[in-house]
Fold:
Amino acid sequence: MSRENPDPIGGDEPRRPTHSLPRYSEPTPETHRKVSRESEAEFALKRTEFTPGARSLLIVLFLLTVVSVPAIQLAVELRAPRAGGGLPSFGVYRVYPAWSKIRAVRQPIDLWHLLPRGADLKAAEKALESDSVVSDWLLPRVQTVLSGTLGAGNEQVYLGRDAWLFYRPDVDYITGPPFLDAAQMRHRAHTTGAQPDPVKAIVEFRNQLAARGIELIALPVPMKPGIDSDKLSARAEPHALLQNPSFSEFKERLQKEGVRVFDPGDAFLQQKSGTTGEAVYLETDTHWRPETMERIAENLATFIQTPASPGDATLQVEAKEINGLGDIVRMLKLPASQNLYLQEKVTIHEISARGGPWRASKEADILLLGDSFSNIFSLAALGWGESAGFAEHLSRALGGRPLDCILRNSDGAFATREILSRDLAHGRDRLAGKKLVVWEFACRELAFGDWKLLEMKLGQPAPAHFFVPRAGEEVIVSGTVDSISAVPRPGSVPYKDHILALHLTEVVPTGRTQEEALESLVYLWSMRDNEPMAAARLRPGDHVTLRVRAWTDVSDQYEKINRSEIDDPAVQLEEPCWGELLN
Structure:
């Protein structure tokens, strides 16, 4: 008995017999064929009719637009050249080989090695964007209209309700795909080269610490849109905690592996639903409010439950009002005179010991690894006060117990572990006497961070092959830039300050001869208060003069600042200097 399929359309016209269908499907009609954007644009252009003179007018306007931008840039730079000499706009040509090197080539194949690398061209492009006079003048004014009139942010910022601002990666973390999805991790590994599995990295780090009898507590800090989501959308529940779909699985897998996880999510909600009903995060910043941070420190101290050790009974707490403007406002690149977003007033509680600011102790048995959430009220450069951060209040909550700290403003997935790994490789045992490591990181790192697998082996102090001044000494050196670390474009990251790394060759300290030339790894300011510094324009091959000091002289002051490293593991292991560019 044969059975005919019902007509899916429901009409009365008899169906065409199956055996009469053609072997191959008929061509899709032209109107339904998928056309690329390029083909569509070409199709429209060929069929566009221009009124008399319109074609010439459009060509003239286009040429004027293309020519006017570099012409204005050149005119401004000719009137006010930079102190170091030369014109920033023409620095892009320094990525190409000098004519003398081209003439010295004997075989055509050698020209290939003289061509600039992709990283050099990208760095030159960033420098052009940063130095653009037209962009500096136009962008703040356009953004004022977009944000003030049209209610639009930019590629880094979402505008919320009641003048609240949200960092786009924080929103993308919550609304994006599960970060533990196998296909998603393969895609990240392929496109970015990152190690995308946070569970693998955290478990390995726990095992490395456990081999030395040290316990690990992981502290993932929830993101602002997941807690104060009602300030982003009126449809959000005011007392709901939003996380990436993979977060629950992330916690379960860690706990199954025996890793202690302190999830502050419930404490965040309790803070928000308290009697005051205050927000948990700063209105125009990516970070938590001081009272939220203090509550989490107290809860963590209870969670730690380690045997009591002598604390510092002399710790003192002093309230201080701070007026600050959030890091997300800076990412909007509004004019300095903008009044769309006003300063926010908060009360911090500064911690002091024996009449001076609280200081970390390398002899402490607890080590805190943290990012900008630990630094926000501790590092003055972030604009929200100092001596009142997460480490200070955790120490206070533990009864004045001393803490050792490794803090870095960004890259919580690997930066602090990388510093620890480098110290150990140099023979500096930062884990000596430690019983507990607390690893604090922002939850967005779970989806976007590079969870590198790093060695934690204690090495032997090696003979210094790189030049480093003696402690307390300042030395003027000259050298040639061999390589330079990546520098973010101002306004593209939440932090207004940045330090770059410079690998110098042919280093000649004052008073030495050229035959004694050495190498050196130097850290310098690349960005201050969202303004690029002269060092950010350096390129491989540049000859520079620097005033350098031992990094150990300034590490307490600058270690917390967002920093990029040379992409060479051998150079990263060398002892660095702190430098000031003189030319």
About this structure: Residues 142-448 form one domain. The chain has three domains: 89-131, 142-448, 474-581.
